[in-house]
Write a structure and sequence with these properties.
Layout: E1 2-6, H1 13-22, H2 24-27, E2 33-37, H3 56-70, E3 73-77, H4 84-88, E4 93-96, H5 104-111, E5 116-120, H6 130-140, H7 148-154, E6 156-160, E7 163-164, E8 170-171, H8 176-181, E9 186-189, E10 195-196, E11 204-205, H9 210-220, E12 224-230, E13 244-245, H10 246-263
Parallel strand pairs: 1-2, 1-12, 2-3, 3-4, 4-5, 5-6, 6-9, 9-12, 12-13
Antiparallel strand pairs: 7-8, 10-11
Helix pairs in contact: 5-6, 9-10
Length: about 260
């Protein structure tokens, strides 16, 4: 099982190292393929006043420190093609944000690296149409068709993070998981799926629904899970209402693994 976990954004070196230390058990678990996640820049914040992160240079220094201290594989977002070569020197997975999932130049730039490319499904996208974003990466890497095994071999993932439902709400259509899994490994982003956009200049959410959605996705069948986590979400500088507490993550991972064992027979 792929597990992507970490804070929404790099708030400080100290907070990142504290969260990274708490996640060590998952990297040591043989049944889990663990990736530490954080963002050096949240370029899609609702308001100009919202905290974005330390930026590219400082962010990469902190990722290097995490890798040296814990040996983790790492994942972060890239928002512009010019960021890709620099970030690819440090991290293992380049994540394409949901709002940029059709951005051809960004996808092609990411495809030209040796990194895994994780494309987040746009909240506005038909699940089946994500195959064309996958194909942009695959064709750049010399493959001609998008199917599960080809994408797995080529290092291309898709992440489901909910779909826009009217104003100020997201829903997860569990049908999207097998639809997209026909042409790529699928990660379920349980914490972004509970977001409630448009809450007075910021995005709100309700993290109490995270366990329900994660367990449902495990039953539907996915390749991995994405959780933004924090020692105290009420203090988080980004996405706090959607995060799961570090203390609550262990129980949920256990439930997910039990459901996966049943599904996989």
């Amino acid at each position: 099982m792929i597990l992507i976990a970490g804070p929404c954004v790099i708030e400080s070196r100290e907070s990142v190292m504290r969260i990274a230390e708490a996640l060590k058990k998952y990297d040591e678990e043989e049944r889990i393929d663990f990736y530490f996640k954080a963002s050096f820049d949240k370029a899609n914040r609702t308001s100009l006043e919202s905290y974005r992160g330390p930026g590219l240079e400082e962010g990469m220094k902190i990722f290097e420190e995490v890798k040296q201290a814990f040996g983790y594989k790492t994942l972060t977002d890239v928002h512009e093609s010019c960021q890709v070569p620099v970030v690819a020197e440090t991290v293992d997975v380049l994540q394409i944000p949901a709002f940029l999932c059709r951005q051809t130049d960004l996808l092609v730039a990411a495809a030209k690296t040796d990194c895994i490319v994780n494309i987040k499904k746009g909240q506005f996208m038909v699940p089946a149409d994500m195959q064309y974003s996958v194909l942009k990466v695959l064709k750049t890497r010399g493959y001609e068709r998008a199917d599960y095994e080809t994408s797995k071999k080529a290092g291309v993932w898709l992440t489901e993070r909910g779909s826009t439902f009217g104003y100020g709400n997201l829903v997860v259509d569990m049908r999207s998981l097998p639809i997209m899994r026909a042409f790529a490994p699928v990660i379920f982003d349980a914490t972004h799926s509970v977001q409630m956009p448009g809450q007075g200049g910021k995005t709100g959410g309700d993290s109490s629904f995270v366990p329900y959605l994660a367990r449902a996705a495990a039953a539907a069948g996915v390749d991995g899970f994405f959780f933004e986590t924090h020692f105290d979400p009420s203090l988080a500088l980004s996405d706090g209402p959607n995060m799961i507490r570090l203390d609550d993550l262990d129980k949920l991972i256990g439930q997910i693994e039990a459901i996966r064992e049943i599904v996989e027979g």
